[in-house]
């Protein structure tokens, strides 16, 4: 009998294809709703006047200080807000369910009883998480490139790739944070709390750090700032941030492997 390669990854992808399609439809709807409105909202003189009348602290907190340009509008409305919210929820949900959710439901013991190693469980389910995020990111890339001209966004296509790359790494960090908390605790809820904390604290620290020079030190602890602080849609790929976000996700995966290998499954 022929043995299929990567059976756990295949099963994770098969079991979650409906949710992946659903999140894709959500991202597509948001991009189709927001981005074509740039000429009449972000780039309009009325919007510039409105922004000038608002408190600058609020403008900086919402990252709306560059919204009058196409890249700034795309960053503020999609990558930094609505897209970030949807993609983070998806990644955190998948990451929390990968180990913690399975153990909580009593399925992880059955999986390991079928001759797969604990390391294999973590790595294949992490691979499924990465693949789902990449599929959604590919959709985002294609849609933004397609709308770039008609919506008059004026973004260099190479910089769109840079923006999507940072979008992937930022949301992957939330997903792997949820994964490691689930592997350490055996509980899906702890994974959701950890992944949400990474996303929310990163966003809040970035917003506070934008308020004054005295608070800019908070940017050092904000994955959100690491990803978007250098404006990848304008400046290209911030390679130091790529290394930092990638290394932290890799650390979370390694800790997940070690945790699951040394824990008494089902005893949590």
TrEMBL record:
The keyword Transmembrane applies. The chain crosses the membrane at residues 21-41, 78-99, 127-148, 160-182, 189-208, 239-260. Keywords: Membrane, Transmembrane, Transmembrane helix. This is ABC-2 type transport system permease protein. It comes from Paeniglutamicibacter kerguelensis. The lineage of its organism: Bacteria, Bacillati, Actinomycetota, Actinomycetes, Micrococcales.
């Amino acid at each position: 009998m022929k043995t299929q390669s990567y059976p756990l990854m295949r099963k994770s992808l098969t079991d979650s294809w409906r949710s992946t399609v659903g999140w894709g439809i959500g991202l597509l709807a948001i991009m189709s709703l927001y981005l074509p409105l740039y000429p009449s909202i972000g780039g309009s003189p009325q919007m510039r006047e409105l922004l000038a009348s608002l408190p600058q602290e609020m403008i900086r907190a919402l990252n709306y200080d560059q919204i009058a340009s196409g890249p700034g509008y795309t960053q503020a409305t999609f990558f930094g807000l609505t897209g970030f919210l949807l993609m983070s929820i998806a990644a955190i949900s998948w990451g929390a369910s990968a180990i913690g959710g399975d153990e909580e439901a009593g399925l992880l013991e059955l999986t390991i009883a079928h001759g797969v190693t604990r390391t294999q469980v973590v790595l294949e389910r992490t691979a499924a998480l990465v693949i789902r995020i990449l599929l959604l990111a590919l959709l985002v890339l294609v849609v933004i490139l397609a709308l770039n001209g008609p919506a008059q966004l004026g973004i260099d296509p190479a910089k769109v790739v840079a923006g999507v790359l940072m979008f992937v790494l930022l949301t992957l960090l939330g997903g792997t944070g949820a994964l490691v908390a689930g592997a350490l605790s055996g509980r899906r809820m702890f994974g959701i709390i950890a992944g949400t904390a990474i996303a929310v604290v990163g966003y809040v620290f970035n917003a506070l750090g934008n308020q004054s020079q005295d608070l800019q030190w908070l940017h050092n602890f904000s994955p959100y700032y690491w990803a978007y602080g250098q404006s990848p849609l304008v400046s290209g790929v911030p390679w130091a941030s790529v290394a930092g976000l990638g290394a932290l996700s890799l650390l979370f995966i390694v800790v997940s492997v070690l945790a699951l290998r040394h824990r008494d499954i089902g005893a949590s």
